[in-house]
Amino acid sequence: MELSNLMVIFGGTGDLTYRKLIPALYNLQHEGLLPENFVLVSVGRRDKTTEEYLVGIEEGIRGNARFPFEEEQWNRLKARIHYYRLPFEDDEAYPEFDNYLCTLEHKYATRGNRMFYLAVAPEYFSVIVDKLQKNGLVREVGAWSRVVIEKPFGKDFASAKELSRHITHVFGEENTYRIDHYLGKEMLQNIMVIRFANAFFEPVWNNKHIDHIQISSTETLGVGDRGGYYENSGALKDMVQNHLLQLLAVTTMEPPIRLDTESIRDEKVKVFKGLKELDEDLVVHNVVRGQYVRGIVDGQEVPGYREEDRVADGSDTETFVALKVEIQNFRWSGVPIYIRTGKRMHHKSIEVSVQFKEMADLLYMKGYQSTAPNMLVIRIQPYEGVSLQFNAKKPGTTNEMVPVKMDFCQNCEIGYSSPEAYERLLFDVMKGDSTLFTRWDEVEYSWRYVDRITQAWAKNKPAFPNYQAGSEGPREAMDLLARDGRKWWTSN
Ligand SMILES: NC(=O)c1ccc[n+]([C@@H]2O[C@H](COP(=O)([O-])OP(=O)(O)OC[C@H]3O[C@@H](n4cnc5c(N)ncnc54)[C@H](OP(=O)(O)O)[C@@H]3O)[C@@H](O)[C@H]2O)c1
Fold first, then answer.
1. Cα–Cα distances in Å, from 437 out to 142, 179, 218, 379?
2. Domains and CATH numbers, the chain
3. For binding substrate, which residues are annotated in this chain's numbering (predicted)?
C-alpha cells in the first residue's frame, strides 16, 4: 500500500481546516500513522506567509486535537506544512502552482501521489476540479490522484448528479471520496460489528422481534455564524439526506457478502431502494418540520432562529425535522423507523434506539406487571457505548418487575478517547479505502427520497416558529409517535 502523498487542502484558512483537518493530521502524526513521505499544502485566498499560517493552526491544534499538544510532534508536523495563496478562479495561476507542487514532491519524495481536499463552499467544487484537470495537475499514470469533497454534495438530485458527473469525469468514481463524517464516527462503524458479530442480536434484528427503531441527532447549539449557509440548506438537507440516512442504512442493511467496500455499499443502496416512496399526503402525515423561537438552553436565554446572524426576518428554513420512514423489504416490513434532528434542543446526543416487541403475557398470570420494553440503545455522541434494557424481578416477596440496564461506555474511562472521524477518514483516503465514503448511487437515492419532501413542503407555508429553544421540538413531532402509541426515547 502506497501511503506517501502530497495533500492539498483548498480552503486551508477555513474553519473546517482549522478545527478538524489539521488537528486530525496532528493526531495521525501523534499515533505514528502519518506517512514518512508526506507534505501538506494549504491553499487560501489571504496573503500570508507559511510562518504566519503556522501560528494560526498551532492554536487550532491546541484547542481541537484529541492528543495533548507536544512540541516535538508539532515540530515534526509543521516542517511538512506549507501555505500557498491561490484565488480558485485564477486559471493562469495553476501552472505555477503545479510547478510549486512538483518541487515539493521532489523534496519530500511523495512519489507523485496527490490528495486534493476541497474544504470550500460548494460553488467552487467544479471550478477547482476543472482547473486541476485543464492545467494537468491530476496524475493519471504511475501515481494516484484522489479528490475529497465536503458536504453538501448538491442541493437536490439534479444538482448532485451534475456535480458528480463533473468530478468523476476528471477523477473517476474510484478516486472520488464524498465525505460523510458520520461514517467516520467510531460507534457508527461499531453498529456493524455489534449486529454481525453477536449471536444474540442478528437473529432478532427483524420485524418478528423489533417493534420500531429511532434514529436521533439533536444539538443544543443554534446556527451560530453559519446562518448564511443554513438558510440555503435547513435541517433536512444538512442532516437527513446524508448523515441520518447513512445511519439508517448501516442499522438496517443486510449482512454484506464480504466486508469489502463495494459489498457494503451495495447493501446500503438496497436499503435506499427499499424506502417507501413518499407522496404529498405521506409527507403531510409522516414528516414534521420545525423552527426554534427564543428560549432557555442550558440555563441561558438564546435568540430564536429568525434573530440569528445572516438569517432572514421571516425565514421559513427548518431547524428541526422528524419523520417516519418505512423500508419495504422482507426484514423490515411493518417496522417504522422514526428519525429526528434539531438545533437548540433540550440535549445534545446522537443515538440509535431499537425497541423490541413486548413478550407474551405469561407472567401476568402470576401477577407481574409489565414495566418497560426491551431496548438496545447505541450511543454515538457525546458518550460512545451500548446500553441494553431488560426486565428483572424486583428483589423481595412480591411479584414485581423492574427495568434494569446493562451499560457499556466506551469513552467513559479516563484517558480513553476514540479517534476523531476526520482522522480515520483522512487515513482511509491515503490508504485508498473508500468504504466509509458515499458512492454515487447512495447519494442519488437519498436525494431522490429527500427531494419528494422538499417538493411537497414547497406547496405549503409552514407555521414557523413552532418550538421553543431548549425544548424537545415541536408538538407535532411528539404526535407523530403518539399516534402510533409510542414516544421518543431519550437515554441522557
Ligand atoms: N466548518 C465546518 O464545521 C464544516 C462541517 C462540515 C462541512 N463543512 C463544509 O466544508 C466546506 C468549508 O467550510 P468552512 O466552514 O471551512 O468554510 P470557511 O471557513 O468559509 O472557509 C472557506 C475557505 O475557502 C477559501 N476561499 C473562499 N473563496 C476563495 C477563493 N475565491 N479563492 C481562494 N480561496 C477561497 C477561504 O480562504 P480565505 O479565508 O483566505 O478567504 C477559506 O480558506 C464547506 O463546503 C462546508 O459546507 C464545514
1. 24, 5, 23, 21
2. 5-150 (3.40.50.720), 183-482 (3.30.360.10)
3. 181, 185, 219, 238, 343, 348
Is 243 annotated in the active site?
yes
Q: Is 185 annotated as a binding residue?
A: yes
pLDDT tens track, the chain, 492 positions: 789 999 999 999 999 999 999 999 999 999 999 999 999 999 999 999 999 999 999 999 999 999 999 999 999 999 999 999 999 999 999 999 999 999 999 999 999 999 999 999 999 999 999 999 999 999 878 899 999 999 999 999 999 999 999 999 999 999 999 999 999 998 988 999 999 999 999 999 999 999 999 999 999 999 988 999 999 999 999 999 999 999 999 999 999 998 899 999 999 999 999 999 999 999 999 999 999 999 999 999 999 999 999 999 999 999 999 999 999 999 999 999 999 999 999 999 999 999 999 877 666 666 777 678 899 999 999 889 999 999 888 888 887 888 899 999 888 775 667 788 999 999 999 999 999 999 999 999 999 999 999 999 999 999 999 999 999 999 999 999 999 999 998 865
Is there an atom of ligand 1 within 6 Å of 480 CB? Answer: no
Q: How far is the CA of 441 from the centre of ligand 1 (A)?
A: 26
- The helix/strand count (H/E) of the chain reads as 16, 18
> Cα(297)–Cα(471) distance, rounded to whole angstroms?
8
Residue 16 C-alpha to ligand 1 middle, in angstroms?
A: 7
Q: Residue 151, annotated ligand binder?
A: yes
Contact predicate 129/166, CB 8 Å: yes
Please, what's the b/e burial string for 330-357 (b: 16 or more CB within 10 A of its CB; e: otherwise)? Answer: ebbeebbbbbbbbbbbbeebbbbbbbbe
229 Cα: distance to centroid of ligand 1 (angstroms): 11
Is residue 260 part of an annotated ligand binding site? no
Joined grid coordinates for residue 283: 409527507
Measuring from atom 18 of ligand 1, which residue has the nearest CA? 14
| 324 assigned binding-site residue | no
Please give the distance, rounded to the nearest whole angstrom, from the Cα atom of residue 29 to the centre of ligand 1: 24
Nearest Cα residue to atom 6 of ligand 1: 151
Strands 349-356 and 210-218: antiparallel
Say if ligand 1 is within 6 A of residue 184 CB: no
